[in-house]
Write a structure and sequence with these properties.
By secondary structure, the protein is of the alpha/beta class. The protein has one domain: Spore Coat Polysaccharide Biosynthesis Protein SpsA, Chain A, CATH 3.90.550. The protein is globular, with a radius of gyration of 22 Å. Strands 3-2-1-4-7-5-8 form a 7-stranded mixed beta sheet, with helices on both faces. Strands 6-9 form a two-stranded parallel sheet.
């Protein structure tokens, strides 16, 4: 009898992936501050949606005992890890420390989300799917694409959020519609290529700047619709200072990019023979200030 041919490697890899629990290689980074009422249920929901994933809780010294509750979860479930920080130092700082930890731990996909139920854990499989299918490097859970939306917000907060995203999208020439949200999935190699040094720690501005840096590094961005629900317990951490900081940083990022483009074109002209413009440069490009 003729010998049966061995299955191709690709087919064997597909079968292995199908056998693995959903979320294999995924790390979810969950910053917390005074989230004692939600840390248990949200952790259970996250790991229920992605049984093969790991969860990293980054607690900023919550005075309500969130960190202790997280330690108890970790003692019961090997998929849960906890990083304790001495005090509240900003959402961005918590995320960056968490990112560094999970990248070192060998994550292939990194998810960032809130612990207050404003981000629905049931969306996690859809959030990571474009990365698993090699269709994107950064997936944004978007409130501002068809199928997305917000609940329990007043008109003022809706205008601030949507207006902030539109302003950043226009100023920085980014394709994404929701730039101020924090429900994202990253390909690990894309996240590790973003320089963490100098990233701003504020909530809104951190989200905008990380997406901007990834986009400029060539990452493929896509959005999946989510419905954002206002936090179930506690109070919102958004403030007027955070919003103003985001606007100023967006303008600074744009001005720095324009200045870098002008310098680059001047250097090309200086290096060209007889002082002629280098290929691809034109007087109209210089006068417009466009990068």
């Amino acid at each position: 009898m003729p010998r049966k041919k061995a299955a191709p490697r690709a087919e064997a890899a597909d079968k292995a992936r199908e056998a693995a629990p959903p979320g294999q290689g995924v790390w979810v980074v969950l910053p917390t501050y005074n989230e004692a009422a939600s840390i248990g249920p949200i952790s259970e929901a996250i790991l229920g949606a992605l049984p093969g994933a790991n969860l990293l809780v980054v607690d900023d010294g919550s005075p309500d005992g969130t960190g202790k509750l997280a330690d108890e979860l970790a003692a019961r479930d090997s998929r849960v890890r906890v990083r304790h920080r001495p005090a509240k130092q900003g959402l961005g700082r918590a995320y960056l420390e968490g990112f560094a930890y999970v990248l070192h731990a060998g994550a292939s996909t990194v998810v960032q989300m809130d612990a207050d139920w404003s981000h629905d854990p049931a969306v996690l499989p859809a959030l990571i799917a474009p990365i698993s299918a090699d269709e994107a490097d950064l997936v944004i859970g978007s409130r501002y694409v068809p199928g997305g939306g917000v609940e329990d917000w007043g008109i003022g907060r809706r205008l601030i959020s949507r207006g902030g995203s539109l302003f950043a999208r226009t100023m920085l020439n980014l394709p994404s519609h929701d730039l101020t949200g924090g429900f994202k999935a990253w390909r690990a190699s894309t996240l590790s290529a973003v320089p963490f040094e100098g990233i701003h720690a504020g909530g809104y501005v951190f989200q905008i700047e990380m997406t901007y840096r990834a986009s400029r590094a060539g990452a493929r961005l896509t959005e999946v619709p989510i419905v954002f629900r206002d936090r179930r317990v506690g109070t919102s951490k958004m403030s007027r200072r955070i919003v103003v900081e985001a606007l100023f940083v967006v303008m600074r990022l744009r001005s720095e990019e324009v200045a870098a483009g002008v310098r680059s074109r001047r250097e090309k002209r200086a290096a060209a023979p007889n002082g002629e413009s280098a290929p691809g440069a034109s007087p109209s490009q210089d006068s417009s200030g466009e990068a």
